[in-house]
Amino acid sequence: MIAKIGRSSKLYGALAYNHLKVDQGNAKILFTNNMIETPDNKYTIPKLIESFEPYLAANKNTEKHTLHISLNPDPNDRVSDTDFVKMAEDYMNEMGYGKQPYIVFKHTDIDRTHIHIVSVGVDEYGKKISDKFEKKRSMEICRKLEKSYNLLSATQRKESENKLIFSPVDYRAGNSKNQIASVIRNVADYYSFKTLGEYNALLSLFNINAEKIEGELHGKLQRGLVYFALDKNKQKIGHPFKASIIGKMAGLNALESHFLKSKELVLNSSNKSEISAIIDYALKSSNNERAFIEKMKSKGINTVIRRNETGRIYGITFIDHNFRTVWNGSSLGKQYSANVFNDLWKNQQNHRKTSDLKLQECQAALKEKSFSTEIHSLFGFLSGENNNDIYSNENSFPGLLPLVQGEDHENEIFAQQMMKRKKRRKR
C-alpha cells in the first residue's frame, strides 16, 4: 500500500473534490471521526466545514493547514469497506491525527479502489501537529498495515519497478516528459540531497538537469524550477518542462523542504565519516584521477566532476548508493574541496613519467566522459559505456531556455513565454 500526503491552505477545495466524486456516483463517504453528524447521514460541503471551523479559527501560524491523504492498496488487493475504515483509523492514530476531525471517502472511479482522508493538521488550540519525518513514518505505518490486513507489499512492487524508474532519459526514444517525471517523482524517496547542486549531480546520472527560474511577473516575484533532458554529452536537448507539469514533489518548495530534512538526517548519520574514510582510502591507493574514480565506484560511490573551459575542476560531488546520500566535496571538509582535487591531480600529472604513450593515456583519461565498472545494483544501468562519471564543462548549460527542435507543443509555448519574460526584465 502507498500513502500520499498532500497539504494546502484550501480546505474547501479538498472537500469539494471528494464531494463531487460522491455526487457523480464515483465515491462514497465511509466514515467520519469527531465530525458533526447529520440525521440522514448526508453531508453538504458547508456542513462538513462546520466540523473544522473551530480548528481553523484557532490556527494562527500554519499556512497549509489542510491534510488530504490517500491510501492506495495494490490493484490486486480486495479490501472490504470495514477494513478500509479500520486502516484509515489505524493510519491516522499512528500519524498523530487520531483525535482530529476527519472524513474518509472511498473512490471507485478507477480500477484501483482507494480511500481519501480529509482533515486538518492543527489541533483544537491552533497548534500545528508535528510532521517531523512524516514520509518515513508514513512508509513504516504502511508496511505495518500490509501485514495486519494481508495486503500485497508495495516495497516488493517498487523494487520490481526500479529498473523502469531508475533509467537514464533517452531523448531519442521520445516522450521525454514521462521519462523525466518517472525519475523525479521517485528520486527524493530514495536519496538525501541538501542543495540544488547536489540534486543536479544526482539527476545528471539520469541525463536530467534542473534550473531555478526567478523573475518578476505582474509586479510579483516568481520562483520555480524547469527540467531539461540532457544528451550523451550532458548538453541540454529539447524544450524545458515546468515542475508543475510533473507534480508538486518536483517544485521548488518541495525540494527546499527536502533539503532541510536531508540536512537534519545527516546530522545524526555516520555516513559523513564513512564516506570520508573511503575517499581517503581511494586517494592513498590511486595515483591519478581515473584510478581514484574507479576505486570509488568499486565501493558503490559515483564521482561527479565539473570542469570549466580551461579544464580546471570547479566542482566535485560524491553520490553514495549504499547510504543513498549526495555530498558536495566541500561539505565533507575543506580537504575534499574541488580546488584540492584539481591541484592534486594536476601535480600528479606533472610528475608522471613522460613517455609519449603514457602522456597520451593521461590526456585521454582527462577528456574521457565515462568509465565502465560495476556499481550498486540499484543503479546497474550506470555500468554501461556512456552513463558513468559525469565530466561537464562550465558552458554545458548555455542560456536559460535554448530553442531546440521540440517534441511537446505545450512546452514550446512555455519556452516562448519564458523568453518574452526574460526580454521584459532586460528592458
Automatic annotation (TrEMBL):
Residues 42-151 form the MobA/VirD2-like nuclease domain. Pfam families: Relaxase (PF03432). This is Relaxase.
